[in-house]
Amino acid sequence: MVETSKSLARFRTIAYTVIFEADTKAGRFFDLALIWLIVASVAVVLLDSLDAVHQALGAGLLLLEWLFTLGFTVVYIAGVWCAPQPG
């Protein structure tokens, strides 16, 4: 049990470093990947707003929008989980 909580604490520290520290290689990669995912998400929403594109690719774009939403939700929850607790 003690080993499990140590492993969890170590994983939380690693997650914090990757998510919040941009001065590490993993942190820079995470930030760049997140920026590209945000740009791709906005592009999908913009494409979906065009009627001709929506008619042709509406179901696929809707799926992508939900995948982006799920992914951003996971990142948000991970950030809340690994953030230091106040107090």
What this model shows, in words?
This protein is mostly helical and 87 residues long. It contains 3 helices and no strands. It has helices at residues 2-20, 25-48, 51-82. Helix 1 packs across helix 2 (25-48) and helix 2 packs antiparallel against helix 3 (51-82). The two termini are 26 Å apart. 1% of the residues are buried.
Q: How do you describe this structure in short?
A:
The chain has 87 residues and is an all-alpha fold. It has helices spanning 2-20, 25-48, 51-82.
Q: Compute the separation of the termini in Å.
A: 26 Å
Enumerate how many helices there are, as a single number: 3
Mean pLDDT: 94
Shape: elongated
Strand percentage lies at under 5%
> Biggest β-sheet: count, sense, barrel?
none
Low-confidence parts lasting 5 or more residues at pLDDT below 50?
none
> Radius of gyration, Cα only, in angstroms?
18 Å
SS-based structural class?
Answer: mainly alpha
What is the percent of helical residues?
over 70%
H/E series, N to C? HHH
Number of strands: 0
Set out the fold topology.
Elements: H1 2-20, H2 25-48, H3 51-82
Descriptive key words:
87 residues, mainly alpha, 3 helices, 86% helix, 0% strand
